[in-house]
Design brief:
Number of strands: 23
Structural class: mainly beta
Largest sheet: 11 strands, antiparallel
Strand content: 35-45%
CATH topology of the largest domain: Tumour Suppressor Smad4
Strand order of the largest sheet: 3-2-1-23-22-10-20-12-13-14-15
Number of domains: 2
Order of helices and strands: HHEEEEEEEEEEEEEEEEEEEEEEE
CATH architecture of the largest domain: Sandwich
InterPro entries: FHA_dom (IPR000253), SMAD_FHA_dom_sf (IPR008984)
CATH class of the largest domain: Mainly Beta
Protein name: FHA domain-containing protein
Distance between the termini: 40 Å
Shape: globular
Length: 274
């Protein structure tokens, strides 16, 4: 974890602004977006198409410092009944610090007692009938649990058990995949794969492509396949893992209904109301 903490602090991420979303609007993912939980493309409204008001509920599932079952109601202008802003600015901020320079800086107060919680930890932004989540770089990360195949992209950080790895893809007619571990028992190790070496299994079993002796991992914890592009999914393709495979929300990612996210030692679920 110390190695990951050092890497995390050296990422040099910018503070997050709403304009960051629009920078991703032109990403050409096409077919990859059909399965990608992290698609940042925002659909544009057609002529004559009316905007629909969309609401988001953030539900606390497990926590050491927050009440399980508590629901935060979020509207397109922000958290309903927020102390931070009365008029709303389309954003929600969550972190352990309430005041800074005489101003309320967070809508949701996260417990300081939990490991890895930042003063301003993550934000949610509303745009074009969708909500987007982004980690703000203070703390030990905001993670999304993979519940469907994820189209891998360069510099994605994937977490499972005590391990964190970075995705590197060499773009070519036959894109080579490199998995570089930045924390955990295989820290500093690299594993390289060509498309014809798919599928790649990660877990505790002796026949796994990358094997771990880690009791927190499932026998077949996660799976990477190549089908015109590299995809990753939790579990063995039929059954999900016990403790999950997690994607670090370094950039804005579109929130979908039922998404699970982990912040410090708190687990949350998103419910979208249309």
């Amino acid at each position: 974890m110390d190695t990951f903490r050092k890497f995390f602090s050296n990422l040099g991420r910018r503070c997050c602004f709403a304009s960051d979303i629009s920078n991703n609007d032109g990403m050409d993912l096409e077919d990859k977006n059909k399965l990608d939980i992290t698609s940042s493309q925002v659909p544009k409204l057609g002529l004559g198409q009316e905007k629909k008001e969309v609401f988001l509920n953030l539900v606390i599932i497990e926590s050491k410092g927050m009440q399980p079952g508590k629901i935060y109601n979020i509207s397109p202008i922000g958290l309903i009944n927020s102390d931070r802003t009365k008029s709303g600015d389309g954003c929600l901020y969550a972190g352990s610090l309430y005041y800074e320079d005489g101003k309320i800086i967070n809508d949701i107060l996260l417990p300081q007692s939990e490991k890895g919680i930042g003063k301003r930890h993550f934000m949610i932004h509303y745009k074009n009938e969708s909500y987007f989540l982004k980690d703000l770089g203070d703390g030990m990360g905001t993670f999304i649990r993979l519940s469907r195949p994820l189209a891998l992209q360069n510099n994605y950080i994937i977490s499972f058990g005590d391990s964190h790895m970075i995705i590197v893809i060499e773009h070519s007619t036959s894109p080579k995949l490199t998995l570089r571990f930045i924390d955990g028992p295989k820290v500093d190790q690299k594993f390289k794969f060509m498309p014809n070496e798919s599928p790649i299994t990660i877990g505790r079993m002796s026949d796994c492509t990358i094997r771990f002796d880690d009791s927190s991992l499932s026998r077949y914890h996660c799976l990477i396949t190549f089908n015109g592009w590299w995809y990753m999914q939790d579990g063995d393709g039929k059954k999900i893992s016990t403790n999950g495979t997690w994607l670090f929300a370094e950039d804005f990612y579109e929130i979908y209904n039922g998404m699970m996210l982990k912040v410090g030692e708190t687990l949350m679920r998103t419910d979208i109301k249309r």
